Each structure stands twice: as C-alpha cells, then as structure tokens.
C-alpha cells in the first residue's frame, strides 16, 4: 500500500514535470535553412554556422524558447552562458534569428531582439563585423544600448540603467564568465559603449 502511494507520487511528479515543460513559450522554431535564407554570406562561412535552441525567462517571467545562429566554435561556451542566465532568471526579451527582420539590425534592435549571425559591415564602416562570422552576440539592446561618445544612444529612446532587469554591467556573472573564456564585452570599450555586444574574435 505504502509502495503504491510512493509510485503514485512519483508518477504525479513525472506528469507535473512534463506539463511544466509544455508551458514553454516558443518564440522561434525555424529550420537551419530558414534561419539563413537570403543571407549574402559565402558557402564556406555558412558551413561554419549552426542554429542553437536556447531557453530563457523573458520579461513576462515565463520560460521561453528561442533560436540563435552562431559559429560552431562558440557553441559550447554560449550554451553554458545561456544556462547561467536561465538559472539566475536574468530576463532576455526574445531570441529570434535576424532573418525575421530581413537582416536589418536596426529593426531587430528596435524590437529588443537578441541575435548573433548577420553578414554585415560594422555600422558606419566597410569592415565586416564579427556578427558576419557568427562570433558576436547582441543581447537585450533596449536594456543595453550603444552609447556613442557624443551621447547619442542606439536604439533610439533606450536607457542604460545597470541594476535593472535584463541589464549587463561589469559585475554580471554572465559578463564575467564570457570574459574568462576570452570574449570581449562591448561595455568595456572606450570609443563607444556597445553594452549589448559580446564577441570572441
Ligand atoms: Zn553586436
């Protein structure tokens, strides 16, 4: 009888576990081909990319699943870093391959989207960005905007307030972890502060 009770308890735990997993909100569910459709990147570069599924708590407090196109060489470290964000319940607004915004970085940023691969130049230059090889990741641009030396902020109207939800600072575990693995954080830069940007050149 007691044993039977234990088994039912175990069963109950199993099904509740399953139903909570079913509560994940899906923000992106593409195939790899869909996630790179229309990119101008050469084939050998495309072959170095992969599509990573990530889970995160968004600003609604709910668990979401999104996708990010990255270079295979950063896959393990980024996977670990996202697990860290999830464990700390650090809010990430949404993670959707930038193809959804027609490869337009401004549109993606305006929408507070987190993304990585985009075959494009560094804003205002003719040099390929680290995003072009999938080795750079932008997270929560609205909470972590770019601040130029003249005080201009991108995306427009955003505010950088360290300590607020979804906002990075030099003390954030995620920032410290990636830097310990040889990544750079744009918030450390002097020419401008790219607070949402992380890369491994
Ligand atoms: Zn970036």
What's the SSE blueprint?
Layout lengths: L1 H20 L3 E2 L5 H4 L7 H4 L2 E9 L5 E9 L3 H13 L6 E2 L9 H6 L2 E2 L21 E3 L7 E2 L5 E2 L18 H8 L3 E2 L7 E2 L2 E3 L2
Parallel strand pairs: 1-3, 4-5
Antiparallel strand pairs: 2-3, 6-11, 7-8, 7-10, 9-11
Helix pairs in contact: 4-6
The structure holds zinc ion.
The site of zinc ion (ZN) has 4 residues, from β6.
Task: Explain the overall architecture.
By secondary structure, the protein is of the alpha+beta class. The chain has helices at 2-21, 32-35, 43-46, 75-87, 105-110, 173-180; strands at residues 25-26, 49-57, 63-71, 94-95, 113-114, 136-138, 146-147, 153-154, 184-185, 193-194, 197-199. It has a 3-stranded mixed sheet with strand order 1-3-2, covered by helices on one side. A 3-stranded antiparallel sheet has the order 6-11-9, covered by helices on one side. It has a 3-stranded antiparallel sheet with strand order 8-7-10, with no helix packed on it. α4 (75-87) packs antiparallel against α6 (173-180). Residues 9-20 have low confidence and may be disordered. The protein binds zinc ion. Residues 131, 136, 138, 197 line the site of zinc ion.
């Amino acid at each position: 009888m007691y044993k039977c009770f234990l088994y039912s308890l175990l069963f109950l735990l199993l099904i509740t576990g399953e139903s909570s997993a079913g509560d994940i909100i899906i923000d992106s569910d593409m195939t790899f081909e869909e996630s790179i459709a229309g990119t101008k990147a050469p084939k050998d570069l495309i072959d170095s990319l992969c599509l990573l599924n990530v889970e995160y708590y968004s600003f609604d407090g709910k668990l979401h699943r999104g996708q990010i196109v990255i270079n295979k060489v950063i896959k393990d470290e980024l996977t670990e870093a996202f697990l860290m964000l999830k464990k700390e319940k650090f809010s990430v607004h949404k993670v959707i391959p930038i193809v959804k915004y027609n490869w337009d970085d401004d549109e993606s940023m305006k929408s507070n989207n987190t993304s990585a691969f985009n075959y494009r130049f560094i804003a205002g230059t003719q040099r390929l960005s680290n995003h072009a090889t999938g080795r750079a990741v932008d997270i929560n641009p609205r909470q972590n905007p770019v601040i130029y030396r003249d005080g201009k902020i991108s995306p427009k109207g955003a505010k950088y307030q360290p300590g607020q939800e979804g906002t990075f600072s030099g003390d954030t575990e995620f920032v410290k972890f990636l830097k310990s693995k040889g990544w750079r954080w744009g918030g450390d830069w002097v020419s401008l502060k790219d607070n949402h940007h992380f890369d491994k050149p």
